[in-house]
Each structure stands twice: as C-alpha cells, then as structure tokens.
Design goal:
By secondary structure, this protein is of the alpha+beta class. 23% of the residues lie in helices and 37% in strands. It binds 2-acetamido-2-deoxy-beta-D-glucopyranose (NAG) (2 copies). It is found in: Membrane.
Length: 288
C-alpha cells in the first residue's frame, strides 16, 4: 500500500489532537535548597507547567530520607492521612484554593530538626506523571552554653559544658584565655525527639594566671557560635580548702551544740529553782 500525503497529514493531525487531549505536564520547583529556620512556617514550592488544574490528580509529597516516606497525600479530592510519617502529623497542608491553577506547593509549619531532607513532589494524572525533588536544610541556633563546676578531679578542677537546641550537629570546644584548645573528655551528643542536638563535654583544668576558661559551641555550616566564659577563683584550686571547709563546718556545728546544751541545762536548772520556790511559798502559806 502506498502512503499518500493525505494519509500523512491525517496521522499528524490525529497525533496533535491526542497530545492536546492527554494531560501532559511538567512538575517544577526551586533548584536551590530551601533554608528553613527552626520554628518558622515554610512553603515548599511545586507547580505544574502548563498551569493546568491538579484538582483531579494525586499529589504526593515524600521525604526521601525516610523509609516509609509519605509526608502528605491528596487523592480523589481528599487528604489521605494513612501512612503519614508521624513527625508531619498536623503540620502539613496544600493550598487547596490554588490547585486549580496547578500550584501544588506544600505548607509546613513549626519547622523542626527532623524536617531536613530531600522532598519529592510527585503528581499523577490518569495517563501521565512527573515529579520534582527539592532539598530542605534546617537551621537552629542552640542555647548559650551552661558551664558547671564539678569539683576536684585528678589533680585539677572538673568543669562541664552543655548546650542544646542545635541543628545541624554543632562542635564543642574548651579554650583557655589565649584561645588555645584544651584537651577534654569525649564529646557527648544526643538528639531530641524533634531532631535538635544537645552537646556536652567534660574538661579538667589546671590553675593558670587568669583562671579564665571558655566553652565554645559552633556550627560552621550555618555560621553560628555561642560561648560562655568562666572565671574560677584561685582558692578553688587550693587542695587544703575542702578539708579546711569541712573542719570549719564541724567546729561551727560543735560550737552550736555546746551553746545549745548549755542553754538547755540552764533552763532546766532555772525551772527547778522556780518550782522549789513555789513549793516553799505554798508550804509557808499553809504554815500560816
Ligand atoms: C497560566 O499561565 C498563563 C501563562 O503561561 C497565564 O497567562 C495565566 O494567567 C495562568 N493562569 C493561572 C490561573 O495562573
Ligand atoms: C502557590 O500558592 C502559595 C500560597 O498562596 C504562594 O505563596 C505561592 O507563591 C504559589 N506558587 C506558585 C508557583 O504560584
């Protein structure tokens, strides 16, 4: 059979009609990572090109860093809450009034440490689907370090530094007054249920001419640091001090006891005298 020009034209026309009828689209979003400050509300942008309605489509938001990755699902005009990652419960929504123009952005409220990750916006129509992945970084500046004095340790003074509420994980360092790093114990890091980091580290310091020590907690990726300086009075380093203190306390206790006893005895004697006097008086009265 010979293919005529008319046949060709018909095939092309049919193809064009078919393409126009099917819902072909692209899913787009930002290519740069989104930096979110802990506690803020953020929008993860995602939209269809061309801007056709997504109201009849399935919109899936996934966090690819979780095994069961569902953050949000919109399907058959409803929100599907099954299999949602518990961290996202009550914190996610679509702009439903924007779906008709192909805006499938996700709103995420009260950003926390566990929100960092790669998010896929996956959109499926009856005969077509596409997706776009965006990166979210979470930034949280922790608390000012708290330094506590732990007392005499192995020939020096034990100090402990603690700071919490960081993201990403920060580094902790102990420094002397010249900014020189002191060798300290192993750093201890914990992650709370919202994914924020708490760090702490013990150090044993020796007496110096200034007795000033600094605990610094910093996160270079977000370019933030917090530090606390302590000044230890040199008497703290005096080894006789604890014994002397104990001796003084014992002496004081002793003195208080002695005074107390003396007072008690005095009172008892007085009372006896008084009773005796009263008795004498009664006798006297009877004798009259
Ligand atoms: C869809 O996009 C076109 C241009 O690409 C624009 O003129 C139109 O206003 C948009 N429609 C909506 C509902 O945003
Ligand atoms: C989608 O809707 C939200 C909320 O109104 C808006 O902030 C965002 O800019 C919209 N995105 C696009 C691509 O239109």
């Amino acid at each position: 059979m010979k293919v005529t020009q008319l046949d060709c034209l018909c095939v092309i026309l049919l193809h064009l009609l078919h393409t126009a009828g099917s819902e072909k689209f692209e899913v787009l979003g930002p290519t740069d990572p989104i930096v979110a400050v802990a506690g803020d509300d953020i929008i993860l942008p995602c939209y269809l090109k061309p801007n056709i309605s997504a109201e009849d489509m399935t919109v899936d938001w996934l966090n690819l860093d979780f095994k069961d990755s569902r953050v949000y699902r919109y399907q058959n005009h409803r929100i599907i809450r099954d299999y949602q990652i518990p961290y996202y419960r009550g914190r996610t929504s679509l702009f439903e009034e924007e779906l008709w123009r192909g805006n499938t952005s996700l709103k995420l409220t009260r950003v926390q440490g566990t929100d960092e990750g790669r998010y896929k916006c996956f959109i499926k129509a009856k005969s077509w689907y596409d997706d776009f992945t965006i990166q979210v970084l979470v930034k949280a500046v922790g608390s000012k370090p708290v330094v506590s004095i732990e007392g005499h340790r192995e020939g020096g003074m034990g100090l402990l530094c603690e700071s919490e509420g960081w993201h990403p994980e920060p580094e902790l360092a102990w420094l002397d007054s010249k900014g020189v790093h002191l060798s300290a114990g192993p750093p201890e890091t914990h992650r709370d249920f919202k994914g924020f980091y708490r760090v702490k580290q013990h150090v044993i310091v020796q007496e110096t001419d200034t007795n000033r020590f600094t605990c610094r907690v910093q996160q270079s990726r977000i370019n933030e640091k917090m530090e606390t300086e302590v000044h230890l009075p040199s008497e703290l380093f005096d080894y006789a001090t604890p014994l002397r203190m104990a001796f003084i306390v014992l002496c004081c206790l002793g003195a208080v006891t002695v005074i107390g006893l003396a007072l008690a005895i005095y009172c008892i004697c007085n009372q006896k005298d008084y009773l005796k006097k009263e008795k004498d008086e009664i006798m006297e009265e009877k004798g009259k």
